[in-house]
Structures are given as C-alpha cells and as structure tokens.
Automatic annotation (TrEMBL):
Transmembrane segments: 12-31
Annotated Pfam families: N_methyl
Keywords annotated in UniProt: Membrane, Transmembrane, Transmembrane helix
Protein name per the record: Agglutinin biogenesis protein MshD
Superkingdom classification of source: Bacteria
Amino acid sequence: MNSQRGFTLIELIIGIVLLGIAVAGLASLVFSQARPSITPLYQLRASELATALMDEILAMSFDENNLTLAANSRCGSSPCTAPNDLGFEVGESRQNYDDVDDFNDFSINGALLVDEPSLSEIYRNFTLTVEVCYVTEPWNNCRTDIVTMYKRITITVNAADQGNVVVTSIRSNL
C-alpha cells in the first residue's frame, strides 16, 4: 500500500488557529509592557522642564520691592507684596518678570515650553503650572494672611497621561 505523508486540511486549520492564539497572547504581553516602559522617559523630561523653570525663577529677586541685591534692601525696610497680590504686574510678560512672585499662577504648555522649534513636538503634551506663596516654615501651608521672609515655589508638570511631577523650592529674603 502506498501511503502519502502530510497534513490534512483539518490539521492545518487547527495549527493556524493555535498559532494565531499564541501570537495574539504574545502581542498583548509585549504591548502591555510598552506603555510602562515610556513612563520613565516622560518623568525625566518633566523633571528637566521643572528644574529649568525653577532655576529661572530662583535667579529672580525675592520681591518687587527689593529688586537690588544691596545688603540692606530686605523687605523689612519696605513693604513686600501682599499675599493676595502675588503675581505679575499689569503689562508684564514672562520676558520681563523681575521677581519670584511674578510667576504665581503662571502656566505654559506645548510648543511654548522650548525655544528650539525642533523640540516643540517632544514637549507638546506637557503643561507647567507654578504656585508661589508665603510660608512661615519651609513645608508649612501657604499663608494668605501675612507676609513672611520665605516664599515657596511649587512647579507642577503634567506629562500628558503619565501623571504629574512636582518640584518645590523655598526662596528666602535673607
């Protein structure tokens, strides 16, 4: 008897179905890991943006009323900005901010975050917001009733749907 070796049509169909199930399982495993693997990259970019803006803010004077760095020009000698008046002055824009509290309620996003047009696509889903407030001690809550020698600067970077990165610093008037 002459027997031929090979697969039947049913065996081929079963093999293809099993192979399809295996590939679908592997694909779902790989794709489910792709999202968490990008999170550190977004967090790094968010951290770099927050640090760059914090450096810019900390380079500013403590208050509008003591813009010089002279030894005796602290806020104690002339009144500092009232807590409810923190923020930029009328007609002021980021290019001419001159003190820390000008950045209160500052918000920027997308292509405006960077000066280089080639980088604008990288940061299009990022939003930075800044809060500046008086505090009596570095990690106390914001004070809206008194002027103190410390301003807390909090920068929150929202990195699309990757969560927030928060950077906080204290600027003192000493």
